[in-house]
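Problem statement: downstream parser choked on a complex file, so we are re-checking the raw output for the adenosine-5'-diphosphate run. The parser issue turned out to be on our end (a line-ending mismatch), but while we're here, posting the original submission so the record is complete.
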Amino acid sequence: SKIEAGKMELENLDLDVRDVVGDALQVRAQDAWKKGLELIHRVRPDVPWRLRGDPGRLRQVLINLVGNAVKFTTQGEIEVLVSLEAATPTAATLHFAVRDTGIGIPVDKQGCIFESFRQADSSTTRQYGGTGLGLAISSQLAELMGGRIWVESEPGVGSTFHFTGVFELAEPIAPPAYPEPLRGLAALVVDDNPAQRAALADFLASCGMTATLAAEVDSALHACRLASERGESFDAAIVDADMGPALAAEIRRLPSHGDCRILMLAGLAAHADDTDGDAGQQVQWLAKPAKHSQLQQALITALTPADAATSSNTPRLSLESCRPLRILLAEDGEVNREVAVGFLEIGGHQVTTAENGREALTLLDQGEFDIVLMDVEMPEMDGMEAARAIRRKESGTGEHTPIIAMTAHAVQGYKERCLDAGMDGYITKPIWPEELFAALKAHAPAEGPTHIPTSAL
Ligand code: ADP
């Protein structure tokens, strides 16, 4: 109604389209992961990095379209592709395509779904819910951005929603300024998904790197051997973690590839046991879908010589940023629990789970732990109460088990309430690996365990 009353105005702010797309995909990542769908984002290298427009509204349209794509797809993948449609000296028209491999939409329904409260098939309301408003709003926002929205779809095959938008150029289009440590380096991409390979190739091109693409382990090793025969080597390899745990170590065992840095892209369900064999330090893990800025930073960190890296204060994105910890995770939501366990295990930690505060207290009475991750809202005994009970038990023992609160409440003052209850740190849900690992690093003791069972005291 705000749009229809002509009251919606777009902002004109700095906008990094790669970041906005990455954000939108990360918002939908858990839903996609639950359904086993691959999320891919591909931004053509000629799309300018620095634009001006309304990042919030652009994100809203993308979250909406990606949300629908996830909702109406049971297997396969969802790709957001961004390309440059036209450019003038002051503005760029971008074309966004959100492609899914879902149920599709019959041709005779493809027009009406953009109208308010319309769905392709009214019986889907029962199955999928929804209001029929998302596309109407997205379509108006696309128009406000100076573009339009449309769909191409085939029932049973999938749908691609397209929209365009005009954005101001924050600087004249010029030869790209590639990040210095990356320019001209050679990377190997190993992924069995062709769309993901293409997306990574475009990402590498926009960093000024060359890409060699391999769809399977054998061809990856073959490409490395060929390079070795020429006396060359890949500076980095970006490897889908599903392609096999040992590949990292195998690449690095090949002649001249001892220094190859490996970036492992892991689905949320990957496990630390699948990790790097003896490749150890040279492997960095990133959770999918990683934003391009995160990928780029991870490559810069990996490829900056060690002495330069310590003098710069670029944050390390490695998930293995602190020693392996014994973690007690109290979280009642099954999905959040699985996500957190997935991340923690990728980071090499050992996790024990509890479904409420009372269970957490019982487990603490029985075992040794270095740190506790405590959901605040839980049935039976919530996190606040459990934290107070832990501190009461510890009083006078000199023991202090670090407790990190996890909560969906981002309201002001909430953090103080957690700290008052005796917690040491605070992260917000949905859980993202960088925040989680930063909190662990900040609060985990240098040596453990901090908690020994009360029975042993
Ligand atoms: P809602 O999803 O709340 O019903 P939308 O306006 O976002 O509302 O979508 C309208 C209708 O368009 C949906 O109910 C569905 O029938 C159809 N639709 C939208 N996106 C897709 C998609 N990716 N695949 C199949 N059908 C879709």
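For whoever reads this later: The first strand starts at residue 13 and ends at 15.
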